[in-house]
């Protein structure tokens, strides 16, 4: 397709990307930092439990972890623990390098930009901008909505609706890319199409599920929007 024609066709359509688990593989760093915190509090934290925290905010994740460990803390203590976990997490994230992204992520982002789609980030993470800078992808996004701008966590659609609003695109013309069940629910609740990243058995409500962005292309995208 001629690039000028593509720009006219797709300028009213958007792709909104979750970050962790879609563009970068940070779940392992979250896991290591939460495990270190749980161990410090004398209980363990498993990979299965970590799975349940995908798409869940830092504060809510900590509440769940303390519940699982059977530990009660005051609000002030919880704030200190969340800060400690985040310091450990950021230490690891700071080691990330340019192109330290999941397979196909940079290529697909470039392809949708070149095709004229608008792009936004819709992430629960308050570290989203640092991470995108580290891996060299910040400039691929027209709008960034992250944990610093939203008050309601996924499955509430706020993060994606703010992304669509920032781009000036109707939700029905947005496709969300999500690896978390809560994120797929959030996109659906916002009236958007969703591409699930992971397994179809888990992300049952997605319009299409692919193993990773390396399995995505413009043809598949155009079919669902
Ligand atoms: C989401 C992750 O993207 O961000 C969650 O899937 C994480 O696991 C949440 O808890 C908040 O991240 P951060 O970087 O603000 O602690
Ligand atoms: Mg995610």
CATH superfamily of the largest domain: HAD superfamily/HAD-like
Bound molecules: 6-O-phosphono-beta-D-glucopyranose, magnesium ion
- Uncertain spans, ≥5 residues at pLDDT below 50? none
Query: Would you list the SSEs in sequence order as H and E?
Result: HEHHHHHEHEHEHEEH
CATH architecture of the largest domain: 3-Layer(aba) Sandwich
If you compute it from the alpha carbons, what radius of gyration comes out, rounded to the nearest whole angstrom? 18 Å
State the domain count. Answer: 2
- The strands making up the biggest β-sheet line up spatially as 3-2-1-4-5-6
- How many β-strands, per DSSP? 6
Helix content: 40-55%
By secondary-structure content and strand pairing, the structural class works out as: alpha/beta
DSSP strand content: 5-15%
Morphology? elongated
Q: Which helices and strands appear, and what pairs or packs with what?
A:
Elements: H1 3-10, E1 14-17, H2 27-40, H3 47-51, H4 58-69, H5 75-93, H6 105-114, E2 118-122, H7 128-135, E3 143-145, H8 158-167, E4 174-178, H9 181-189, E5 193-197, E6 208-210, H10 218-224
Parallel strand pairs: 1-2, 1-4, 2-3, 4-5, 5-6
Helix pairs in contact: 2-5, 4-5
The structure holds 6-O-phosphono-beta-D-glucopyranose (BG6) and magnesium ion (MG).
Magnesium ion is lined by residues 18, 20-22, 54-55, 179-180, 183.
């Amino acid at each position: 397709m001629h690039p000028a024609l593509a720009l006219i066709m797709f300028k009213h359509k958007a792709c909104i990307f979750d970050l962790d688990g879609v563009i970068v593989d940070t779940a392992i760093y979250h896991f290591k930092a939460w495990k270190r915190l749980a161990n410090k509090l004398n209980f363990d934290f498993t990979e299965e439990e970590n799975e349940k925290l995908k798409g869940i905010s830092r504060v809510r994740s900590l509440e769940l972890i303390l519940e699982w460990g059977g530990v009660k803390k005051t609000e002030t203590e919880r704030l200190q623990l969340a800060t400690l976990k985040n310091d450990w997490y950021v230490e690891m994230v700071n080691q990330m390098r340019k192109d330290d992204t999941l397979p196909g992520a940079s290529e697909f982002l470039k392809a949708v930009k070149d095709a004229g789609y608008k792009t936004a980030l819709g992430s629960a993470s308050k570290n989203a901008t640092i991470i995108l800078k580290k891996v060299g992808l910040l400039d691929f996004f027209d709008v960034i909505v992250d944990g610093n701008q939203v008050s309601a966590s996924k499955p509430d659609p706020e993060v994606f609706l703010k992304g669509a609003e920032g781009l000036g695109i109707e939700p029905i013309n947005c496709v969300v890319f999500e690896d978390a069940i809560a994120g797929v629910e959030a996109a659906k609740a916002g009236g958007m199409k969703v591409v699930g990243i992971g397994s179809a058995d888990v992300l049952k409500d997605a319009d299409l599920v692919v193993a990773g962005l390396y399995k995505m292309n413009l043809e598949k995208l155009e079919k669902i929007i």
